[in-house]
Design brief:
Largest sheet: 8 strands, mixed
Structural class: alpha/beta
Number of domains: 3
Length: 507
Amino acid sequence: MFRLDPQKTVHEHVAAAENTDGTQVSLSKEALEVISRPVEQTLSSAVIVGIAQLIEFMLLASLGFAIYWSYVGGGDEAFYIPTILGASVLANILFNIARVHRVASYRTGFSQIGRVLASWSLVFMAIALVAFLFKASDQVSRVWMVSWYVSGSILLVLYRLSLRSLVQSWTVDGRLKRRTVIVGGGADAEELVRAIHRSADNDVELVGLFDDRADNRSPAMVAECPKLGSVDELIEFARRTRLDLVIVSMPLSAESRVLQMLKRLWVLPVDIRLSAHMSQLRFARSAYSYVGELAMFDMADRPITDWNLIYKWVFDRVVALSALIVLSPIMVLTAIAIKLESKGPVLFRQKRHGFNNELIEIYKFRSMYVDQHDASASKLVTKDDPRVTRVGRFIRKTSIDELPQLFNVLKGELSVVGPRPHALEAKAANTLYHEAVDGYFARHRVKPGMTGWAQIHGWRGETDTLDKIMQRVNHDLYYIENWTPLFDLYIVLMTPFSLFSNRKNAF
């Protein structure tokens, strides 16, 4: 991952890639046509596989217990309960070793079922072997064992056929395909496109190519895949329609070009892969990731995906709802105090950049006089600012003014933890944030948050110098690159302490 270089001139930034002038890049009619198409909500392959494994485990274990209770009728629980649970776990392990818990395997028929039944047979061979070695054969009911094996085999076949039907239906609907673009053109990109159609057509929806070259080396159509624009236009394209994967078609030997390309693309919340089809070097299979059967080098990953995305969703809702319940008396008293001191609404709404640079409207308790409020935050609030009310000074110092953003969390616009969303015209030393910091928009690769790594380290409040905003962004990028569930929990627990220790920075 790239990090900010504090020694770099602040205006040496990738202007086109980040739209730092606040305008949208003009897109081609081909790109606009792709954007206008309806996009199906996709399903995570990792989540599908995880749920499929859990259901299969529960089905096998439940079947084993049902036969035990109906035939054996109780007794020897100390033997049967761990045997059934252990056999079900072993079956899951063997299914994974046989590579039948993959979405690609779920689409197959006889191949999948054959490996599943072979693995299931190995489980019962293991039970018989353990019973023999430990001289426990007299404790095992042969009727129970044969019944569980036979009925389990039938159950597995029916389950796998149902799973196959479901996955094929999702595949036809496009719900398992990653929307993908290729960066590059010409003969090399043509070879890559044809390889994707041969081996990854079920996993990839190839929407087009982007290439900076405008000569005959980069034709308008490559293997029936249209060129949609330049790489600068790709940045805007990815912000206006869902994109899951960017494949860079460049030789690994062109190190400087690859690094420059990554620097332009890493602000996007997508997986970025470098195709290995042009490389003469060959590595171990574990060195690659795969799109279908195509080997790829990982250049960048979306920070939070699959099960982590589900965890983040649950974490946000649980914390937000709990905070609303606990803090509702403070919020009610704050609303009353604001109403009593000055005319105007209790809440203040402000446009800010959210996930992937989308505009969101966040809620805050109003802390300024209505006729002096600054919706775009073009002028920073300073110490003893006359625009701020007496109540406003207190709630800004204590961050109570931020509490209505809990409703933004419940709406899915914010997370509890993440980079703080900044006002559109916020400035540091009279320079717009995105002009002051190289790589600024990479903060938007995850959903913004109410609190974050920068805030608990004191980087909140006024940004009157370039160093302050650079430090804030550096901390935000560190959070994105090092995110874990425990990291979020730690930041939430430390936030109350940081509010008291860093009050001098908030005006």
